[in-house]
Structures are given as C-alpha cells and as structure tokens.
Design goal:
With 306 residues, this protein is an alpha/beta fold. The chain has one domain: Alpha-Beta Barrel (TIM Barrel). It contains eleven helices and ten strands. The chain has helices at residues 11-24, 65-70, 74-94, 107-110, 113-126, 146-159, 174-180, 200-216, 228-236, 253-256, 276-286, and strands spanning 27-36, 41-52, 58-59, 101-104, 133-138, 162-168, 185-188, 219-222, 241-242, 251-252. Strands 1-2-4-5-6-7-8-9 form an eight-stranded mixed β-barrel, surrounded by five helices.
C-alpha cells in the first residue's frame, strides 16, 4: 500500500491532488472493527480514509492530511467522509443491519459551524438513528476555540451522536479536554497498550485511565490490541472495547459490506427523495446552529481570557 510520508516535499502538488480527489471522488473508505469485550462481538467500526493513486494503489492519510490542513482542505475531506459514513449506515439499515460507525474529524472541523450544519442536514435526510454515529477527534488536534468545541459537542449530544477523544494520553491536553468537552468515549493511545502485558508502569496507567473513565461515565477503547493476552488484560480492567490487529486489520468497506459504494460517485447522493418529515427535521436542526449552547452538565466552562 502506497504510504509516502514526503508530503512536505511537494505541498502544492499534494494540494492539487487533494482537490482532484475531492472533485472526482478519488477517495475510498476503509473500516477497522471494535470488539465489545463484554459480549465478544464486533459492535462498532472506525471509518478510515485512503486516496486512490493514479496506479490504483491506496495512499494512507499520513501522506496528504498535513497538506490538506495547511491548504484549508481538511474540512472538505471531513465532509466527504461524513457523507460516506452516513450513506453506509443508511444503506445497511435498509438491508436490516444496524451499524455503529466512528468517524475521525479534524480540529478545524470541530470549530466550523458549517460542518455541524452538514452533519445535522445529512442525518435528517438519511433518516438514520443518530446514535449510530460517533465522531472522533485526536487529543493532539489543534482546537482553536474551546468554547466552539464545547458547542459542537453539545449539539452532537442533542442530536444523539457520540463524541470520542482519540489517542488519549498521547499529548499534554488530555485532562484539559476532559474538563471542558463532554466526551462519550476515551480511546487509550496505543503507546500504553503495546507493551501492556510486560510493563507494570503501563498497567498502572491504563487501570487509572479506566477508573477515571468509569467515574466520568465514559466508555473506553484500548487501541493497538494485538494479541489475546492484551485483550484479556484490558477486559479485566473494565475497558469496554478493543481495537487493533488482534481484533481486525483495516480493509476497504466493500470487502466488509459487499456492494457498498461499488461506484464511488454514489457517495453523498441519496437513492430516494427525502420525505417531508425529514426535510422539516433538517430545517429545525439547522435553525439551532447559530444559537449559543450552554456547556453540558458535568463539563466546566472554558476559562475566560485574561
């Protein structure tokens, strides 16, 4: 799989390729399963993104997302992925399968009211259960305005969607984000999971995170779970989900759900005309975008500027 890390060597060229991919639907969605440790069943899937190269190979996002952020294109990519995820949930629901998908978004999108409006509109038009969709933001993502992020999280909660903090523990903002933003899920960074079976220090820290999450009423996911011993250990700590190569490797959604988006141009388009009820719900949801939302219960207000 092509995964060139040399995005900085040719930023203008990558920006042009990203624009072309957006215009011509040259992105594809992958998924990686999350195992619910209590039931032993796959209960959720994280949606991942790849760009299709000219030779047909799939390029991992580490090659193009830094340029997308610099060029102001990352919100458009986020919107493309969100539409694809919602379409997939709706398609599988029509086939009698309930999917719960986790979608990564950028720090820029968290503070972008236009993206929130898109989420509300797409959910209403697709007529899916909002609880089937969780949005993830990495702890290291740059959030320019914490109050806007609070508002975004609050509106997601009002809609019924989930909000997850990914790579928890990877940076220095872990507890600051937990204090100010209402997250439903903490995804524990793989740095603490890879050597968990052998490292007592990791064990102490992961148990502490699991205990903290329980006190906050937040679900937990252990990332980078590669073997049965690690999976059993995190389960014993009360962690809810496991994700990693020991559960399942990322693969195209068409491999997991045959027939899903056989034609990439279908993403974002509805097969059926939305109902009058759906449109009314969308209009009602959109009317609340500009309204100032109160901080959610249990979340501290952002500090006032000095």
């Amino acid at each position: 799989m092509a995964q060139s890390p040399r995005h900085a060597d040719d930023a203008p060229g990558w920006a042009q390729r990203i624009r072309a991919a957006l215009e011509n639907n040259l992105f594809v969605l992958y998924e990686q399963p999350l195992l619910e440790l209590g039931s032993g069943a796959v209960a959720r899937h994280e949606i991942l993104l790849r760009m299709v190269a000219e030779d047909g190979e799939h390029i991992a996002p580490m090659a193009f997302l830094p340029t997308a952020e610099q060029a102001g294109l990352v919100q458009a990519i986020d919107a493309w992925v969100i539409k694809g995820a919602i379409d997939l949930i709706a398609r599988q629901a029509r086939r009698g399968e309930r999917l719960h998908l986790d979608v990564n978004i950028s720090g820029a999108s968290v503070t972008d009211p236009e993206l929130l409006a898109l989420v509300q509109r797409e959910l209403a038009l697709a007529e899916i259960e909002p609880a089937c969709l969780t949005f993830e933001i990495t702890e290291t993502a740059a959030i320019a305005d914490i109050e806007l992020a609070q508002r975004f999280a609050g509106r997601l909660g009002e809609l019924g969607c989930g909000f997850a903090l990914d790579d928890f523990g990877a940076g220095f903002g872990s507890f600051f984000y937990l204090k100010h933003i209402p997250f439903d899920t903490l995804k524990i960074d793989g740095e603490f999971i890879r050597g968990l079976v052998r490292c007592e220090r990791d064990q102490i820290m992961v148990k502490a995170i699991a205990s903290l999450a329980r006190d906050l009423g937040t679900e937990t996911v252990a990332e980078f779970v590669t073997d049965d011993a690690t999976r059993e250990l995190v389960h014993s700590y009360g962690i809810h989900y496991a994700q990693g190569y020991g559960v399942g490797r990322p693969r195209p959604i068409t491999a997991t759900w045959p027939g899903a988006f056989a034609d990439r141009s279908e993403i974002g388009h509805r097969a059926a005309r939305p109902s009058v009820t759906a449109l009314a719900v969308a209009e009602q949801a959109l009317s609340g975008v500009a309204a100032a939302a109160r901080p959610s219960a249990g979340v501290c207000s952002a500090p006032a500027p000095s």
